[in-house]
Design goal:
Length: 669
Amino acid sequence: MTLRGKLLLVALSILVLPWAGWQFVRQMEFLLRQGQEQALLASAEALARSVAVRPGRLPPAQPGWFVHRLDFAPRLDGEAGDWQGAQADPYTFGSGRPWLRLSAARANERLHLLVQVDDTSRQRGEAHWPADLEFDRLRLRVSGPSGDLVLRLANSASGELHVAGEDGLPPPIRVEGFWREHEQGYTVELALPQAVVVRALAIEARDLDADGGRRTAGSLDAEGRLQLRPVHGYVGALEPELLALAPPGMRVTLTDREAWVITRAGRLQADDTEEDLLPWRRGLYRGLLFRDVRAVADDAPDARRLMRAELAAAIAGEPGVAWRRDPYGTRLLLSAAVPLRVDGQVRAALLLERTNSEVLLLTDRAFSGLLGVSVVALLASGGVMFLFASRLSARIRRLRDAAERALDREGKVTPFPRTAASDEVGDLSRSFASLLDQVSAYTDYLRSLSGKLSHELNTPLAIVRTSLDNLESAALPPEARPYVQRARDGVERMGTLVRTMSEVTRIEHAIESSEAEAFDLRALIEGCAEGYRSLLQPRAFTVELPSAPLPMRGAPELVVQALDKLVDNARGFCPDDGWVRLSLQSDGEGARLVLANQGPTVPEAMRARLFDSLVSLRGKPQRAEGGAHLGFGLYVVKLVAELHRGHAEARNLPAGDGVEFILRLRGMP
């Protein structure tokens, strides 16, 4: 990352302020919701106590039958399609997999029953058959003000329902119904007369298999006898009372112990706050603020049964509270359920519901203010950081450019700009300037070292050489003469070193003081090549020159010295029966001079250092003819190439039988 990017990233740390503000808003919203929960629970408990004053209208505490309300009487045909949803959640009986289902409903003051039995082993009979005969049948026990009545229901085939008393005789009341056979068993649909007031009901189904097996199911006690269960249903008389007691804009629902709705009053007040919020804000609140509210209020307004967690808790004896989201918007729905107790027993559960607008209003106001402050603070801090980073990065770029220009390709040190700034960047620039001053002084010392050494070593070498001459003229024992010869060889090598260093110094001075002139490089190379031919004998020497003149602006004598060094290098490495090839060609704005020779290749590790000072790859075979070689020749070639705005390079031939030196020249400015 760039410096500006890093500082902008640091500037984002100011986002911790809106995050902390957002946490505060969420905590405040949580406390507000807790207060609303307690208030709604208190209202629900007050309503429950008011309803419990008159317990006669409430369902009994023990298990009973819930009778649904139907808008019109279903047709008695053994089909459940016209029961208007009342058959969707029947009472089930039977161990393991339930095989007896019962639904009860009331229409036109008549009690309707829908009985479904799974029985594929048909052992059918008629209701009036003797009781000691075994066959598939239903027993129905009803209880009312005039006493109990047991009815036997059985048909041998589909058709009008056959009803008899317990003794097989015609019953005292006329029961209408229909028995329908189907693949899974049979369905019985019946209706009791209007005059029969049913307070309790019991049912039993007996299934006989072909092999004599028998099973029973229904509302039976531990001894297998019919056990009456009280009948209750929707109590419309409670609606005006609940409507008068419930707070405005709330909905009250009263359920029995199985969550069947027995009374419903009031309606939820429309929430206008949703219209005041922009769509993107509603989506934001839905995704951030109400993440913990996952349930959606998807109950139908006329649902017969409510399966809710808070209602289940109230039926179990504990109050419950739940938040839900409106499926059509972002408003919250708060519901509180409390148990309705009579004499310490839970007889019903009261559910109180209301919409919530305070949370949305508070959140929107707090979020709007927080968003505005955060945006202003972020833009301000980001702008300041960006300006500071831009200025700092510009200073660092200037420092980098100055460091790149401080040392040129020839090793010369240019003055480094100093700044008076007192910060760390200013200290760094001054440190760089001091370091480059020391490097410049050391470089100047190294540049003049060879000249100083060559001058200072001449006198000691002359003294040693004179002393060796005097020793040779004196009478020396034979065993001492080899040592004198070794000393003379060493003096000669040191003399060669001094002369070479003096030559390099002169060439460096000549390069510094050389003046450019126009000349024909082709003619210059052609003239030198004739002299090299005799020098390189008996080696084969070929020259490839362009047909047209090749004008060049530079120092021709220095180019000749560089070519002499290359030829001398080729002569030292090329065997007597080898070949040397010199070629010249135009290369864009300059020229490309190549000298190739047969011989050993250059190690890859030495290619980058080959043109440095005091670097030589010559062994004893290559030094035998030419004496000591100290590695200054190719260094001079590099200096001449750089003077002519070019460079020198060496590479092995593709066939691996030699090496070629390439000198690229563009001319002096």
